[in-house]
Automatic annotation (TrEMBL):
This is Transcriptional regulator. Pfam families: WCX, WYL. Residues 243-315 form the WCX domain. Coiled coil: none annotated. InterPro entries: CBASS_pafABC_assoc_protein, WCX_dom, WH-like_DNA-bd_sf, WYL_dom. It comes from endosymbiont of Escarpia spicata. Residues 143-207 form the WYL domain.
Amino acid sequence: MDRFDRIFELNRILQAARHPVSRRRLEEDLECSRATVKRLIEEMRLFLNAPIVYDRTFNGYSYAQDEGEMYQLPGLWFNASELYALLSMQQLLEQVQPGLLGSHLQPFRRQIEQLLNRQHAGGEQITKRIRILQAAARSAGNHFSNLATAIALRKRLRLDYYSRSLDQSTVREISPQRLTHYRDNWYLDAWCHLRMGLRTFALDAIIESAVVEKKARDINEDELDHHYQSAYGIFSGQSDKIAVLHFTAERARWVAKEQWHPCQESRWLEDGRYELCIPYHNPAELIMDILKYGPDVEVISPAELRESVINRIVSMSEIYQSA
């Protein structure tokens, strides 16, 4: 922990403490010596106008009662991990729609790099040291700005949307609720006024978009979470089935550390295999994820899911048998 991080952490400790904090505890939490603690306190008092006082009764330090609750570190102040996270987030946004936020974020990015240079040597190199890899990502198209604007202003959108499953496009009016980045692709959760229900739209399938000067219909967070997070994967709807999967002992070393769904249940079997139980509604994505594990997983139940996986395996084998 360096000087800037220690100042950041010292401020956090003093703001969170109900009683004065002893010097010994500060030494332990800040991982430094008694002399360093005293120097940090003096620097904060002199250069950052921190209202730090010493309490003889508790033999510790705190912010002055009349000023401490209102005190904040001056200016833009982040610790190193937060700065790195901001730069990573910027890289992710740049991949959405190249140039979308470049002019707005570039000054902020330079400020972050300057802060990193002051706090940590080599800050200007951090963007070269962070990689965000994408697999099978589809372009988000040129509509991210319209969608974000409509969400922020709570306006409706008119979409010309292409359905890959039906191989046709429809024009519809929607009330956007939130953007979701899932498995390297972007989706829009929205209330569809054509279908009169919640739907998920892939950004890469939007042909045209326009903000409509009508107030968007608001759906509360609990209802959105219930609809979109109850079942497995990006496919929405209330979960009504439980998939029971058995993984081989070898594959379990990886799967046991994975979260497939927030409400999953799991247990180790006596022979070393791993059982994973997942709630789902639409099986399409779940079947794809099961198949990628090949012979390392077996669907135990329900019967219709097991049958669907068997049929896909048979169809795959027929392709290679005829070759």
